Amino acid sequence: MRPKVVLFGDSITEECFVEGGWGSALANHFSRTADVVLRGYSGYNTRWALKIVERAMDGICAVGDQPLALTVFFGANDASLPDRSSGFQHVPLLEYQGNLRSIISYFRDCWPATKIVLITPPPIDEDGRLRNPFEDNASDLPERTNDSACAYAKACLAVAAECNVPVIDICSKMQEYPDWQKSFLRDGLHLTAVGSRMLFEELVKKLRDLALSLETLPADQPLYSDIDRKDALKTFEK
């Protein structure tokens, strides 16, 4: 069976296979070398992720097999402000960190050889959240703020350092660019095609650092360029 790369996260992961999404770009990138498996759960925080992680991962790999790599991308919902419209999704900062540790421990116990990559929550465009027609902002206050998102991103970085897990700081990376609010975020939270492209490129670089790249992974079945033009079937007997 082809090796697998598993994407575990909230709505930013669940929708990552849309046209221009970072997950679909990753699947295309590894199209001949690995299967990209999507496990995204819109609206979920780390508290809920812990409740379903075992069921979510059931059947992904055959017994005795392990994914090559796995991304853990939560925090955007945990960082919802507790006294606003999405307060039921809020998870206190210290609990968020504890939940991330527990998720990492779960995967290390199940799949000790799998490379785990954390991804911080993205920054928040508060104006974009106020304009979002799917959120009840009757108070004229965004249910998420950039200050809160950045605090959870820093907490994610701290857990990554503590647990010695690679991490992509998409929160800081995006804010290095002018007009990041509208360039990278379509509704103040979810990624545009440009934002998805940035995350895809950062993830490919991180996986390459972990020796997981097109150069190090074997292709599935003989490449067309390797087929013997004089005796094609001979190629498949090797």
TrEMBL record:
GO MF annotations, alphabetized: hydrolase activity, acting on ester bonds
Keywords noted in UniProt: Hydrolase
Matching SUPFAM superfamilies: SGNH hydrolase
CDD domains: Isoamyl_acetate_hydrolase_like
Domain of life the protein comes from: Eukaryota
Coiled coil: none
Pfam annotation, one family: Lipase_GDSL
Family: Belongs to the 'GDSL' lipolytic enzyme family.
Protein name per UniProt: SGNH hydrolase-type esterase domain-containing protein
Provenance organism: Vanilla planifolia
